[in-house]
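Incident review: delayed structure delivery

Summary: a single-chain prediction request sat in the queue longer than the usual turnaround. Root cause was a stuck worker, restarted by the on-call engineer. No data loss occurred. The affected request and its eventual output are reproduced below so the record is complete for anyone auditing the incident later.

Affected input:
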Amino acid sequence: MNPEEDTEWNDILRKHGILPQQIKITQNDIYDSAVAKAQEEESERLEKLDLDELAELEDEEDDQVLAQYRQQRLAEIKAQVDKERFGELMHISEPDYKRQVTEASRDSWIVVHLFRDSIPECKLMNRFLGELAQQYRATKFVKIIS
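Output delivered after worker restart:
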């Protein structure tokens, strides 16, 4: 009988206090101890440096933080530009409807205006949708004759 084994019998013995409780080490415990050890090593290394070396290290860390922030910001701007690809109210015809609306709706939001040239309210709505299209470039605005 091995008291370290995880068996039903050993669980019963632990429950009645015959065997000591089994210590369970989780991934978080391992990670926390590794982080604590790395922090201790870093603090020991920093204690050995003089003021000039500390100032130089601080400058290097500042440069690294700024470079990392720059890369993150460039990635955010690139993602924003990729999303904002429309910006105008496009006139489509019936054969284009499937490609321009149905298939494209998987990638982005689409606003469809069914209009008639003979109705003045439709002309006004087209003008407002054109302005909205410029404001919300990530959304596709299309108009089709009804």
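Verification: The longest strand covers residues 110-115.
Action items: add queue-age alerting; document worker restart procedure.
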